[in-house]
């Protein structure tokens, strides 16, 4: 990293008062070539690749709060590309390859850690699905290995493999290149790099309306005034339905709270990411030592950023079923984010019925892993007015044509 130890020491001695701002505090101009609504990882990555790959720098990212505090700052940071259908496999694998060079690219440590993502099978049906998925992944040139129960035990020694348990383990599939990244760093890294290329990142600027004339978007109304825009890209995750509704576009998404929780920090005991669909828990250990535990999404649509209590209880039941040794671990905090889910559990990235208005949404419970790839293809779409080859099938139109990309089985747990 180009920030030297000397810099770190100098800032420590000056009580950290001399750190320069990482990105400019921009005030909105009257007009931009491209306005991006939503300053999460996807919106910021889009802005960066617009400037970097397409030379479009007259760009504003409008964020209603501080950047990165939506789902980007609330997720459990699992990164993988173990998808079965070709469309998804290509998109997520492109993202994973970008993750592999992202810290270098942004000169910002995203703490990307390829510690492996292990999915477990407890029924013959799950095992069949994994075998099929492994074949599809190999055909797409994506790494994965099927594991026997004994190999799973070697990978995760803490797991309880009592064959008298309610769900005896039948096997697993591991993608060694999968892992975790530091979510805040992804937002900050893209923000700093985009800002350095001339992008205006405008925080505390809520979009309150989208102005259209003769079927074409012309401007956005915001809490800081009206801003004209050549093109508008909406990347508002849990609120994409609300924002697109401002332009009269109805999206096939429903918004649900999705929860996670963390334990008190402990010494390193868990070196991988583990997902158990049937028992229904997924977990990893953060660099701070907390176990990061993912829950199911709530059963009801809601914009309240807190989840139901029964899901936390269910999560801990599932955790202890696999790892009785964690029974004395205290849970430290719990939170939720709002995820927008499509009927086929795949995102929508592309054009809308309004000219020059584009949308990137519907990542549901699994969009963090896609952040660099999503930004890459959405920037291409905004720059050219047409989708990239990797997102052309993720159109809004597929819900009319019926060419769905059904990835309901690809979620880590039953979301
Ligand atoms: C608990 C939880 C766990 C998850 N775990 C994983 C995981 O392990 N792996 C994975 O791949 N994915 C995971 N996800 C999903 C992932 O977090 C999201 O798919 C992804 O972060 C979406 O990124 P984004 O940049 O589109 O959204 P966000 O970060 O939510 O960005 C959208 C931004 O739009 C802004 N906005 C909304 N309305 C307006 C408006 N009117 N004007 C201006 N700005 C507006 C919001 O404030 C927000 O900052 C999880 C999600 C949750 C909630």
**How widely separated are the two ends?**
38 Å
Structural class: alpha/beta
CATH superfamily of the largest domain: FAD/NAD(P)-binding domain
Oligomer: single chain
The overall average pLDDT, rounded, is 94
Give the CATH level 1 class of the largest domain: Alpha Beta
Q: Percent of residues in beta strands?
A: 15-25%
Query: What can be said about the biggest beta sheet?
Result: 8 strands, mixed
Q: Domains counted in the coordinates: how many?
A: 2
Proportion of helical residues: 25-40%
Shape: globular
Helices, by number, come to 11
- CATH domain fold name of the largest domain: FAD/NAD(P)-binding domain
Secondary-structure element order, as H and E? HEHEEHHEHEHEEHEEEEHEEEEHEEEHH
Low-confidence stretches: none
CATH architecture of the largest domain: 3-Layer(bba) Sandwich
- Ligands, deduplicated: flavin-adenine dinucleotide
- Using only CA atoms, what is the Rg? 21 Å
Number of strands: 18
Describe this structure in words.
By secondary structure, the chain is of the alpha/beta class. The protein has two domains: 24-108 and 182-252 and 343-410, FAD/NAD(P)-binding domain (3-Layer(bba) Sandwich); 117-178 and 255-341, D-Amino Acid Oxidase, subunit A, domain 2 (D-Amino Acid Oxidase, Chain A, domain 2, 2-Layer Sandwich). 28% of the residues lie in helices and 24% in strands. It contains eleven helices and 18 strands. The strands form three sheets. Strands 1, 2, 8, 9, 10, 11, 17 and 18 form an eight-stranded mixed β-sheet that branches. Strands 5-6-4-13-14-15-12-16 form an eight-stranded mixed β-sheet. The chain has a two-stranded antiparallel sheet with strand order 3-7. A hairpin with a 5-residue loop joins strand 14 and strand 15 (291-297). Helix 2 (41-54) packs parallel to helix 7 (183-196), helix 2 (41-54) packs across helix 10 (371-384) and helix 3 (86-100) crosses helix 10 (371-384). The longest helix is centred in the N-terminal third of the chain and has 16 residues, at 124-139. The chain starts with a helix and ends in a 14-residue tail after the last helix. The model has no long low-confidence stretch (mean pLDDT 94). The structure holds flavin-adenine dinucleotide. Flavin-adenine dinucleotide (FAD) binds next to helix 2, strand 12 and strand 16.
